[in-house]
Amino acid sequence: MSKVISNSKEGFQIYKWAKQIFKFNRSLTGSGTVETLNFIKKKLPNFKIKKIKSGTKVYDWTIPLEWNVKKAYIEDLKGNKLINFNDNNLHLVGYSIPINKVIQFKDLKKKLHTIKKMPNAIPYRYSYYTKDWGFCLQHNKLKKFKDQKYRVVIDSSLKKGNMHYGEILIKGKSSKEILLSTYICHPSMGNNEVSGPVLLTRLAKYLLSRNNLHYSYRIIFVPETIGAITYINKNYKILKKNVVAGYIVSCVGDNNDYSYLETKDKDSLSNKIANTAFNLKKLKFKKYSFLQRGSDERQFNSPGIDLSIGSIMRTRHGYYKEYHTSLDNLDFISSEGFQGAYDIYTLVFDILENNRIYKNLIIGEPFYTKYNLRTDTLGTGFKKYSLNISNVCAYLDGKTDLIDLSKILSLNFYEITKIIKILKYNKIIKMVS
Fold first, then answer.
1. Angle between helix 402-409 and helix 413-425 axes, rounded to 10 deg
2. CA distance 350 to 355
């Protein structure tokens, strides 16, 4: 288990935000999702909230009706509520249609979802694209139901409205972009997925604070799957032209080992940068192939889209027992967990910003003595650090980036960046890209 022992200043702030938005009833559409986007906008003034109408076709998909809930519960005929949406929004199956009727328990039971092996957990279930309804509850509570009639009330609405999403573009010197995406459609669960939106909000603030960014950073907050497909549909040309790497920010709040889900293209810049970051920090992490995909990396790597977007996570979605249950709560995530995720992502950004390609300005080997980078006194040749300088310079061919160079020379990436500064200062090399 990779515990964070460094200062958790950012982690505390991110966790505080997680607590503030935890109970919003997020879904593909609706007021809870809009509340979440408005929360983010207060932290990021240049953040834009956009919307697209229900019924709009986006590739093979259609934007669903807008779903909102006023109340939902099951009570006995004496008025005693056994399940109440107001207690926990996971109690209601997402996108449940409205209903108000008395029903016999043997029929009601077919609409009740529990996890027998986790008797104290409320499962998370949804019915986005099929008209249905249902309730979720702890298996232990199911035992308390009797063979009698119950009143079922779901005061929900499914109407033509809008699906909302948000974005911010942080411009750097280059038009080439790094895409960062998270999803805003999951209700009250900490790691999946309160953690993604709050961490990515803090990361956006970090990027805004940096001077002289090389890359531009396109940061989006979308409903999972349909939101990513919609965003690609509306921005296809610019994404294909500019995006060179990126990550889905998901499941980043727990304090267990790290995970990386690779892009379809194993040689992608996203994979290269992520692996370098983990190795530099000497962090234990579990690598998953694209064949084990499960989030919006599916959409961005799809044929015809082919954007190599990976995902840097703590414990990945679907691989912890609390996943998609009420046990994925505020106790499951922590400021320490957030701090670790913040640290790895900010390191990723720093590597991206420093991983340039350089070319020699001098034909042949430079006269290093002229630049005080070599001494010939008593024939001792290169100074202690000069051989590394010579080796770095020898491989700056205008094609090899610094990450590949660090592998060729078995040198730490940041040791090479120090040498690059020396060579640039002496006007021996220039940056190509």
1. 110
2. 8
Query: Are 77 and 118 spatial neighbours (Cβ–Cβ below 8 Å)?
Result: no
Q: Which tens digit of pLDDT belongs to each residue from 370-381?
A: 888 875 544 455
Q: What is the DSSP letter of 92?
A: B
Tell me how long the chain is: 433
Taken in order of first residue, the domains within the chain and their CATH numbers are 9-64+162-354 (3.40.630.10), 70-159 (3.50.30.90), 357-431 (1.10.10)
Could you please report the per-residue DSSP string of 197-232? HHHHHHHHHHHHH-SS-SSEEEEEEE-TTHHHHHHH
Query: What are phi and psi for residue 163, nearest 5 degrees?
Result: -105, 130
Distance, in Å, from the CA atom of 316 to the CA atom of 329, rounded to the nearest integer, reads: 16
Predicted pLDDT at 4: 38
The 10s digit of each residue's pLDDT in 122-163 is: 999 999 999 999 999 999 999 899 999 999 999 999 999 999
Distance (Å, whole) CA 342 – CA 199: 7
In single-letter form, the type of residue at position 343 comes to D
The dihedral region occupied by 364, where left means phi > 0, alpha psi between -120 and 50, and beta the remainder, is left
Inter-residue contact 403 to 355 (CB < 8 Å): yes
The enclosing H or E element of 394 equals: helix 386-394
Rounded to whole angstroms, how far apart are CA atoms 94 and 87? 15
Residues 6+ apart with CB under 8 A from 229: 58, 59, 61, 299
How far, in Å, are 87, 166, 221, 222, 413 from residue 50 at the CA level?
31, 6, 10, 10, 40
| pLDDT 10s digits, 357-402 | 999 999 999 998 888 887 554 445 555 567 789 999 999 999 999 9
Residue 376 pLDDT:
53
Closest C-alpha to 366, from 354, 358, 374: 374
